[in-house]
Structure formats: C-alpha cells, structure tokens
Design a protein that fits this description.
- The chain is of the alpha+beta class.
- It has one domain.
- The chain is about 15% helix and about 25% strand.
- The chain contains 4 helices and 12 strands.
- Strand 11 and strand 12 form a beta hairpin.
- It is globular, with a radius of gyration of 19 Å.
- The two termini are about 20 Å apart.
Amino acid sequence: MNTYTDAAYNVSLNGLPYMMPVSPWFYTKLPGYDKNWLWAGDELWFDRWQEVWSFQPEWVEIISWNDFGESHYIGPLDSRQFGPFGADLGQAPFNYADGMSHDGWGAMLPFLIDTYKNGEATFNTEQLFVWHRINPTGSGCDFGGTSGNTASQLQIEFEPQTIVEDAIFVSALLSYDASIVVQIGSTLYGPDWAVIPFNHQGMFFVSVPFSGSTGDVRVCLTRNGADVLCVDSDPSKQNGEPLPC
C-alpha cells in the first residue's frame, strides 16, 4: 500500500478537500451478490494509519463500521444486521462474521485519530491488540472458488493463499518499551518489534509468522521478566471477556 493514488486524487481535486479511505482487511463470499474474493490486507489497518499521519488529508473515511459481509467492519457485532448472509440474499455458505469481534481495531481509534489531528496523542492505559486468521493457508481447507483480487474490479486474480500472510499481527500502545512473547500451540517466539515509535512511546507493531505452528495463540508483553499484558485466543482464559480482535 502507498499514497500514490491518494496523491493523484488530491491533485485532480485542484484544491477541493480529499477524503482518504482507511480500511482493515477484506474478505467476502456472498454468491447471491456475485462476490467471492479477498484482498491483501493483513497489516493494512496499521500501515494505512501511518500513511494518514504522513499524508494529512482534510478528511478520513473508515471503511467500514458494519459491513459484515465484506469483513472490514470495526463496529460491534450485531446479529440484526446479519441478513446478507442468508439464503434469500447473499447466500453465504456460513456466517463468517458471527463470533469474530473486530472491536480491537475500533479501540485503537482514539490514539490514531488524535495523532492524525494533532500530530501527537496522549493515553493513560497501555493496550495490546492481536489479530490473525484461524487457519493457515496449508490447512487443506477448500478455497471455495475464492480468488485473491477480482476481475470484477479489473484486477489480475491470484490464488488466495498467495496474497495472505500466515502470521500473528501484534500492535501495542505503550508508554515505554516492552518485550513480546508469542505462543502458537506449544511453540514460543520472541520477536523484535518491526516498528518502534519515536521516543519509544506510542504504537508498536510486529508480525510473527506461523512457521508451521498450529494451536491456541497467546501473546504477552513483558517487562523485567514479568507479564504486563496478555491476549489469548481462547476467551475462557480471559475470564469470559471477548478478545480485542
């Protein structure tokens, strides 16, 4: 992702305000609407906000609040809006939004928006955000005709497994450095942060490949050998609280 297209729109508007779109990942399988594709976007939510901070458009549009059928919702799950998955509309093979909370992306917004508007942001609580697909690309699942990209948007199509990453994506809002430990099944990983904010305060980021590991996912931030924040893929291990993402 880059801002070349944003710049082209901005120039063509000749001084009129430009609204820059921001979205997390995209997946849809609604044959009733002739839709069955995904777009690369594993790191898009983090990367795109970095571009917003740099580009400084007049407006930002988040896509979307509640488009559950395209998987890029950041608002709370609402079963009253799951109609497009039904046999009389989108004819989805299953409801792939049900139980898949994206609230963590929304929880990042106060810091992200304040930084966009003011060049900096303050926060009182450190936060840890984790997102990932629940199956690796080599799991043997049937792709069900889903393509990576779509000819309906005049794009070259690819096999879907070639444009997604088998990885755990971690972003943390921290007041100072913390180490990260990622556990997939029984395998532990201790990666270095890929993105460290100025003065080591703000939004950190790293992606950790599955590397063939499968099982429950646990991500912890540590300082001086002690856990300070953890996210677990099993909600029962969080006292019944839903996962951030």
